Amino acid sequence: MSTGPSPSEGARTRFADSQPESVPAGPGTGRCLALSGGVGGAKLALGLSRVLPPEDLTIVCNTADDFDHLGLRVCPDLDTVMYTLAGVSNRVTGWGQAHETWSFLEALARLGGETWFRLGDRDLATHVERTRRLRAGESLTGVTDALCRALGVEARVLPMSDDPVRTVVGTRDGELSFQHYFVRDRCAPAVTGFRFAGVDAARPAPDFLAALEDDATAAIVICPSNPFVSVDPVLAAPGVERALRRTRVPVVAVSPIVGGAAIKGPAGKMMAELGMPVTAIGVARHYRKRDLLDGFVIDHVDAGQAAEIENLGLPTLVTGTVMETLADRERLARETMDFARGLALPPDDIVEAAPPEPST
């Protein structure tokens, strides 16, 4: 929607404890389009999948992390969401499958092959089947749908595009492909910027565009994913930012930064190296400068930043965003959806919430 109040009008902070129990869905009937990448995005996607009917949830995943390794197409963000929603993800590492074995990798090491990117035996089956189908002429959208159905995932999971896009990380020592930076080099190089090779020619997946234009959508949620390498590639696909600015649907982002650090991954390190404050405000500015958001969700520990975020013209929900349990994921999903729906109401109908009473 991107038509929130200007800084001079003053946005309003909402605290989760004082959210109304139910809010009319505004222009939609309750459907949600979620943009996701990485472990944080998958956690909220799981919460959304448990509080919404499957036909009401579409999850669009970053595919600029995808790469060909050992002759196989690997799609890390798609797989993380798929495994998480299927209940087979490795909850310790945040990537790969639970109860994994490593016979293939051990045999490969004995042969002198590349083992820096760890492919477990169960995970390997996904990449083999995906690669087979792609080589047979199926689209990545079609392959992803088939794999999700095979694993019992009912919500719609989409790649951002069926066309190849690759994140290239600028560092002080030159450019690196994303997986070389992220996995092989363990995010050690200092970053100077990012580019998304192939994005100008990448068409957003047709069902992604359809979801952006669906009048039945009640909320577009940018999950707490890395803004630079998980969300920005999705936004960079031709026509996506324009669609987000034009939509009447509230667009809400959940901050991946809590208490001055990323919950998981290199987002905080990247922000510092790019000269940005490692704060929720820094993330809000990153999105707001492109006029993409109608609301922003931050954690209780960052409540002191709410006023400054409001001065950007962004209504702010203060709640618990650290998702340690399944109940946390479901609660944050409900609160984020209620918050977004409230933003679709006429201004006179929005309830200004008081902060919760301090605990004693």
Characterise the protein shown here.
By secondary structure, this protein is an alpha/beta fold. The chain has 13 helices and 15 strands. The protein has helices spanning 38-51, 76-86, 103-110, 121-135, 140-150, 178-184, 206-212, 227-236, 240-246, 267-273, 280-288, 306-310, 326-343, and strands at residues 13-15, 31-36, 57-61, 67-69, 72-74, 156-159, 166-171, 174-177, 191-197, 217-222, 251-254, 257-258, 261-262, 295-299, 316-319. The protein has an eight-stranded parallel β-sheet with strand order 1-15-14-11-10-2-3-6, with helices on both faces. The chain has a three-stranded antiparallel β-sheet with strand order 8-7-9. The radius of gyration is 20 Å and the shape is globular.
Keywords:
single chain; 360 residues; alpha/beta; eight-stranded parallel sheet; three-stranded antiparallel sheet; globular; disordered C terminus
Question: Could you give a quick summary of the protein structure above?
Answer:
With 360 residues, the protein is an alpha/beta fold.
Topology:
Layout: E1 13-15, E2 31-36, H1 38-51, E3 57-61, E4 67-69, E5 72-74, H2 76-86, H3 103-110, H4 121-135, H5 140-150, E6 156-159, E7 166-171, E8 174-177, H6 178-184, E9 191-197, H7 206-212, E10 217-222, H8 227-236, H9 240-246, E11 251-254, E12 257-258, E13 261-262, H10 267-273, H11 280-288, E14 295-299, H12 306-310, E15 316-319, H13 326-343
Helix pairs in contact: 1-2, 1-13, 4-5
Instruction: State the total count of DSSP E strands.
Output: 15
The mean pLDDT is: 90
Low-confidence stretches: 5-10, 18-28, 347-360
The structure class reads alpha/beta
Side by side, the strands of the main sheet go 1-15-14-11-10-2-3-6
| Beginning-to-end CA distance, first to last residue | 40 Å
Oligomer: single chain
Q: What is the H/E order?
A: EEHEEEHHHHEEEHEHEHHEEEHHEHEH
Largest sheet composition: 8 strands, parallel
Counted by DSSP, the helix tally is 13
Shape label: globular
* Spatial extent as radius of gyration: 20 Å
Strand content: 15-25%
Question: Percent of residues in helical segments?
Answer: 25-40%
